[in-house]
């Protein structure tokens, strides 16, 4: 995997339905655990290079299965994220589309689905941004 400043780790995983060990009848979505600081995304839905950055005007999230969107600004207001923290929070972005607000929400657009072929695992470790205050040296756990 790739590490960004000892902070973010990326790992690309393949899922081929029907290969040895992969039961055709098993939904990959059922195998994805719920963890706060490790997320899994459908790699093939990413349209640009991923960037870990703070918010910008025009950023948005996909908020439901019908693929409705909401601005990151409105999302942060609705979630009652303190105004003083909003500009300092890191976001994982695909252009203006935000995949993940660490410690908070994942965009529904990039979710792993039954037909997903390649999964991008992203793990946030340490730091004080995105809702985690765990030490990098301590190896923080999900």
Describe this structure as you would to a colleague.
There is one protein chain. With 142 residues, this protein is mainly beta. Helix content is 8%, strand content 28%. The chain is built from two helices and nine strands. A four-stranded antiparallel beta sheet has the order 1-2-9-3, with no helix packed on it. A hairpin with a 2-residue loop joins strand 7 and strand 8. The protein is globular. The relative contact order is 0.27. The model is unreliable at 1-6, 18-26 and 127-142 (pLDDT under 50).
Largest sheet, in brief, is: 4 strands, antiparallel
Proportion of residues in helical segments: under 10%
The proportion of strand residues reads 25-35%
DSSP strand count: 9
Which residues sit in consecutive blocks of at least 5 with pLDDT less than 50? 1-6, 18-26, 127-142
Distance between the termini: 18 Å
**What is the structural class?**
mainly beta
What string gives the helices and strands in order?
Answer: EEEEEEHHEEE
Question: Biggest sheet, strands in spatial order?
Answer: 1-2-9-3
* Rg over CA atoms: 16 Å
Dominant shape? globular
Mean pLDDT: 76
Helix count equals 2
């Amino acid at each position: 995997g790739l590490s960004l400043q000892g902070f973010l780790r990326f790992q690309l995983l393949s899922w081929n339905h029907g290969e040895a060990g992969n039961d055709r009848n098993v939904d990959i979505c059922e195998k994805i655990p719920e963890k706060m600081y490790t997320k899994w995304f459908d790699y093939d839905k990413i349209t640009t290079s991923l960037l870990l950055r703070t918010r910008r005007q025009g950023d948005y999230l996909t908020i439901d299965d019908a693929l409705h969107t909401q601005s990151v600004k409105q999302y942060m207001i609705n979630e009652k994220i303190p105004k003083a923290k909003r500009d300092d929070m890191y976001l994982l972005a695909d252009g203006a589309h935000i995949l993940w607000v660490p410690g908070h929400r994942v965009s529904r657009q990039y979710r792993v689905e039954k037909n997903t072929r390649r999964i991008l695992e992203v793990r946030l470790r340490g730091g004080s941004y995105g809702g985690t205050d765990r030490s990098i040296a301590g190896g923080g756990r999900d």
